[in-house]
Sequence to fold (138 residues):
Amino acid sequence: MANADAKAATPKVVERPLSPHLQIYRPMLTMMMSIVHRVTGGALYFGTLLLAAWLIAAAAGPHAFDVVNAIYGSFLGRLVLFGYTWALIHHMLGGIRHLIWDSGRGFEPAEREWLARANIIGSIALTIVLWIIGYIVR
Fold:
């Protein structure tokens, strides 16, 4: 009788399936785009800090503004600003892609792939065009 009471008091272990992970799933373009969308969102946070630093330097006076412009005008500074521009455009296009999905469209496999490819190609092309226009105007 004591043995039966001990079995009743012990909780029964339920076997559950393991969560799928990257060893199970084959990486898909839309899956990678979701990850990149999150990464660009984080990058935009730090890029906005750079924008705030530039505006604060502009308000602080000509010397501070010249220092920040020299940093941002260096090769490394321009590379960071180029990356920030790409992250901004890529994140914006990803938001438009999600807006299309929110309308109930674009869920077919071919449409999802097309939207993901358009997001990648569009963000790269728009970034390059924007920087070319910036250099022409400058």
